[in-house]
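WARN retry 2 of 3 for item q-0093 after timeout on previous attempt; input resubmitted unchanged.
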Amino acid sequence: MDFTNRSSQQMSDATTMSPQANMGKIKNNQTNKSSDNNDKNKILNIISIIFGIAVVILVVALLIYIALSNSSSNSESSYIYKNKLQAVFLNTGQVYFGNIQKINSSYFVLTNIFYLQTNSSSTTSKSSTSTPSVSLVKLGCELHAPYDRMIINSSQVTFWENLKSTGKVSQAVAAFNKAHPNGQQTCSNQTSSAPTSSSNVQPSTQNSTNVPVSTTKKG
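OK item q-0093 returned
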């Protein structure tokens, strides 16, 4: 028997099989690498999805907050009687009367504006005391000559009210607007009619150009 030929044939078979085994190992390595890449891609996709969901939640929450803020302002606006006057009380103690045109979370818009002015009338009699009178003044004839529109910071408003037409302020404003159907044209004679009583709203005449000026003489 020829053992030499058989052993040489087995060696040749082993030699021819070794490259295939190496290729199998290479393929296994490539498969493992592709599997790792797929796992990484899956993780990145999951992170991207979570981030996108978080952004959507934040945007929806912001929109809900804005909608609730606007709805609260609109609900307050629904209490305005459009055909009535309103009184706006500030935390400074000042009160303005007029028509509220707009309310939101930031500011009030007031037009047709009036305010109260207290004047003390002194007497020469020692037994008499000064009697204060309250005047209703139309905004616009002050030294700085403002327009008849006021933007009031909401944080400065303590509360506001609708006024009845039978009130002294509403009657005085109605009389003034009736006497000035085209609005206030001049500040020389600004009068609002009301019953003349020290405890009631009085007519008021205001001249914004009447500013005291001191003069001196040269010797």
